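It is worth pausing here to work through a concrete case rather than discussing structure prediction in the abstract. The textbook approach is simple: state the sequence, then state the predicted structure, then interpret. We follow exactly that order.
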Amino acid sequence: QSLALQKVENELALAGQIQATFLPHDLPQIPGWQVTAALMPALETSGDFYDVIPLSNGRWGIVVADVADKGMGAALYMALSRTLIRTYALQYYRRPDYVLKAANKRILMDTASDLFVTVFYGVLDPRSGTLTYANAGHNPPFFLKVANGDAPELLCRTGMPLGIFEGQEWEQAELQIEVGDTL
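Step two, the predicted structure:
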């Protein structure tokens, strides 16, 4: 029993190491912008992930997501979701809503599980400071506008999480990020 438990622990540790390779090793150096990220999973593997995707015309795709479970199944679902979002982000580089719609359709075609993934996906144009985003049921990110000093704006969901229902639509929203603002 001890050897079997050790084998499972080793496999989970290896899965965690493999999963970590899906996260960006280095965040982009975007002139005039500061980009930082951290992820601390509660277990060896999890469904949490983030990504920064280089897009055409100097734009960047920004992903923060979470599969609604923990452990090996969530890690596998995360790998699939990340790959699909990256693929469709390159195809629909100006349309976060289309990226989520296409990823949702493919997830439902390729899986038969109770899992789903919440996703915040935005496209940042660093030259203009415009962030176009869609939020598939993810905890809303906070947008702190330095100019007004008010309470943070919540970038609320614009549609359902991915992997639940076919034929879903997501709305896009847009915000202007100025010098000193924080997302």
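Step three, interpretation. Residues 72-91 form the longest helix (20 residues). DSSP finds three helices and seven strands in the chain.
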